[in-house]
Structure formats: structure tokens, C-alpha cells
């Protein structure tokens, strides 16, 4: 294992709260861990009140006024924030030459399913009401945020709202029943998550709702009519199988689905943009996809 990858593994192993931590201890510990990762010094942030929902504009010198990435952070629906995922969201925005709107959606167990989806929808509707054109908006997220990306796209389609240009799903957690074989074969390989922890996170979020409900686990959803989607996953991830399943089902549903996997990469490796070449490569890859969509719609 190369040194940069070993250091990334060690950061998680040395700083993730223990299994017996309380919800508050877990949240504080995760924030402290991600605070160890540097954010670019040319990033400008601006707090936004989205009808009571906390949001943040992230603007870089490359950001075009009319391009928006609506970013949905990860954290198993129970922790994580604008702050802890800022390095990843802002660099994805830089690569796409877009402004980023990142939000602090409500978290479980205080606010279980479907509260985070409702907040993501509120942010999307707010963007439309601010005058941003749907063809210039891309929705993206990591882990639980990848789940919310797919759920939000399905909800937009189902309610016949204006469809955004596309979606980006990084290390998506989209099977809350943990049925894939990689939950067994990758256990202990991925330094970030364990099946035991994910089962508890899913229980907190679902609050008695079946994990087979499509808005909760998008691999069970009808994917017809969704816009282009890019799915990215590390080959060391417990969640590898559900990404493969989702991509196959999206292709059969006629979705313009793109997919790429990264050898040896762990869950949400993009957070290590500052030190891991594979993270930089992945960020550039998301930018290429998003730029393609923005430019295509600009020509249309």
C-alpha cells in the first residue's frame, strides 16, 4: 500500500469515534476528524437561509454565475455537515466551474426518513425560485448524499417538477437493507465503514420503514425518466455491489448512466483531495461529466 493511502486509512482508524459513542459524541468526533483536512484558501463562502434550512454558497474563481451544484453531504443520515464535507463539495464545484449550494439537512434519529429528502427538495425548489434554470443545476452527493441524490431525482420526476441537468453519486449508500455480497467480502477492507455500523445507521434513519421503499433505498426504485447520472465507487467499499446493481438497472431503464470504479479506494476517498492522487483524479472526473452536461444544455 502506498504511503498516501496508508495515511488516509490511518486518519479514519485513529480519529473515528468508538462504536459505543453517543450520537453527539459521534457528530463532534466526525467534525473534528474532517477538520484535519485542508480547504482551499481561494474559497469564498456565504451563509444562506433557505426558509429555515441552513445552506452555504461555495464560490471559487472558476465559478460561473449560472451553474449550480446542489451538494448533499454524507454521514449515514446521522452526522456530517456543510463543514465536514466542504473540501469535497467545493473542489467538485471548481472542477465543474459551478457555484455550490451545500445544505445542512435534518438528521436522524431526531429527524428520520423522509425528512432529509424533504430538505433536499426544499433546497432545489429554492434554487428554481431564485431564478436558476433547471438545465443549469446538477444534484450531487456522497454516501447518504448519493442516496438523497437518487431519491430527489425520482421525486422530481414523480411530481413532474422541472428536471435538473443530471446527478453525481459518489460512494452511494442506496441499499439500506445491506443485501449486497460486498457487505461480506469487503468487510475489514474498507477502513471507513462496517456492516454493523451501517445496520444501526439504517435503523435510525428508517425508524420502522421498510428498507425496500424506493425513496429510502433507490436500488428498488423505478429509474425510468431520470437525467444523466454519474456513479463513482471505490473497489474496496462495502457498498460496491449496490452501485453495480443501480448502474445496471439504470441502463436497462434507458438512463444515460456513467460509471467508474477506482482500484483500492475506500468509502468517500474524495475527501482526501489534498493528499491522494486518486481523489484528485475523481474530482476531475466529476468535473468532466458536469461540464459536459452544462455545455450541452447551453448549446441546446
Automatic annotation (TrEMBL):
Read off the Gene3D superfamilies from this record: alpha/beta hydrolase
Q: Which residues form the Alpha/beta hydrolase fold-3 domain?
A: 69-270
- List UniProt keywords, sorted A-Z: Hydrolase
Protein name as annotated: Alpha/beta hydrolase
Please indicate if the UniProt record lists Hydrolase as a keyword. Answer: yes
InterPro entries attached here?
AB_hydrolase_3, AB_hydrolase_fold, GDXG_lipolytic_enzyme
The GO molecular function terms of this record are:
hydrolase activity
Amino acid at each position: 500500500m502506498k504511503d498516501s493511502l496508508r495515511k488516509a486509512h490511518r486518519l479514519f482508524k485513529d480519529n473515528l469515534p468508538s462504536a459505543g459513542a453517543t450520537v453527539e459524541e459521534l457528530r463532534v468526533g466526525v467534525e473534528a476528524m474532517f477538520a484535519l483536512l485542508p480547504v482551499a484558501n481561494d474559497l469564498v463562502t456565504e451563509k444562506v437561509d433557505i426558509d429555515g434550512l441552513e445552506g452555504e454558497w461555495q464560490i471559487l474563481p472558476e465559478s460561473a454565475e449560472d451553474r449550480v451544484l446542489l451538494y448533499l453531504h454524507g454521514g449515514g443520515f446521522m452526522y456530517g455537515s456543510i463543514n465536514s464535507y466542504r473540501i469535497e463539495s467545493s473542489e467538485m464545484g471548481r472542477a465543474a466551474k459551478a457555484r455550490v449550494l451545500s445544505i445542512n439537512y435534518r438528521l436522524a434519529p431526531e429527524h428520520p426518513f423522509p425528512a432529509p429528502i424533504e430538505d433536499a427538495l426544499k433546497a432545489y425548489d429554492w434554487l428554481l425560485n431564485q431564478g436558476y434554470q433547471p438545465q443549469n443545476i446538477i444534484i450531487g452527493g456522497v454516501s447518504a448524499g448519493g442516496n438523497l441524490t437518487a431519491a430527489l431525482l425520482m421525486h422530481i420526476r414523480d411530481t413532474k417538477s422541472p428536471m435538473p441537468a443530471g446527478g453525481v453519486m459518489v460512494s452511494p449508500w442506496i441499499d439500506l437493507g445491506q443485501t449486497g455480497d460486498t457487505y461480506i467480502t469487503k468487510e475489514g477492507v474498507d477502513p471507513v465503514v462496517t456492516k454493523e455500523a451501517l445496520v444501526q445507521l439504517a435503523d435510525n434513519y428508517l425508524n420502522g420503514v421498510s428498507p425496500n421503499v424506493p425513496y429510502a433505498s433507490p436500488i428498488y426504485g423505478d429509474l425510468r425518466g431520470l437525467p444523466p447520472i454519474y456513479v463513482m465507487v471505490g473497489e474496496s467499499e462495502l457498498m460496491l455491489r449496490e452501485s453495480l446493481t443501480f448502474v445496471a438497472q439504470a441502463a436497462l431503464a434507458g438512463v444515460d448512466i456513467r460509471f467508474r470504479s477506482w482500484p483500492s479506494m475506500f468509502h468517500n476517498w474524495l475527501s482526501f483531495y489534498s493528499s491522494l492522487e486518486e481523489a484528485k483524479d475523481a474530482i476531475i472526473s466529476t468535473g468532466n461529466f458536469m461540464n459536459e452536461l452544462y455545455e450541452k444544455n447551453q448549446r441546446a
